[in-house]
Amino acid sequence: MLHNKRQRLVHLHRCQGMTRRVLRRLLHLDSSLSQIYLLSITSISNYLSINKNQAESIYKDLHNLRLINETITDLHAYNVITIVDENYPPMLKTIKDPPVVLYGYGDQSLLLKCPSISVIGTRNPSKDAYKKTRYIIRPLIKDNWVIVSGMAKGIDSFAHRITLTEDGKTIAVLGSGFQHIYPRENKLLFHQIGENGLVLTEYAPNVPPKKYHFPERNRIISGLSFATLVIEATEKSGTMITVDQALDQGREVYAVPDSPHLPQSRGCLKLIQEGAKIVLSHEDIQLDWNQQLVSLRNI
Q1: pTM tops 0.85
Q2: Residue 233 pLDDT more than 60?
Q3: Contact 62/15 with Cβ under 8 angstroms?
């Protein structure tokens, strides 16, 4: 029923026990991804150097007709990009743990468009956070930058909504499948982004949000961008996970300063203290991008 490598890759990505690391190893061992369907549980365990329980979980889903049918149905219903496709985003190929499969809703050409910047921050923003976000990113939007964020409450939603209001282009990266939009109040925003920008997720459509999905998806948010801009963050904010991912990927990190008496500013001030670039206006970001372009032309 699975007639080509692409279909097999998407199916294997959904199998219980098949981690991204194991799937990449399998691609290295058998680029056609066909041999594993012929193996026993013990052979799978030996072939992939995994324990018997993990091999058994994979074996069951390899021969699960319902899962196979769901895979084929979703391949027709959704825009799916795999790591073996020519249109896989080149920015993501450079990160340590690139997603193997991505489901898209909207304009996939945005994945090839640059410059792009991820705009992130607290889910509990200050009363001035919207104005702060708009002040920094509006000129970038007008200059055709793609704004990337995670469609969470707070700063993420501000970034997407400001971009849509300004007729710009935005990419939202979810921590769930398309059938389980989170947070629920952003369902309308999800459709607005899908119609005017792009929504991405590495989770199959029927996968609900789980706590570990959100730090996991952050590597995609930072990986799609030239730089990460932190508008507001508390000292122990989950925003810092994305910052760590961006630094690990060799991306620039920017932070917007504010009063140390403001809890939502303390994370930004700490980032600046540790070496993040301070942003007083969009020009600070634009200048770095222009300098990078000059450097690339001189290589």
Answers
A1: yes
A2: yes
A3: yes
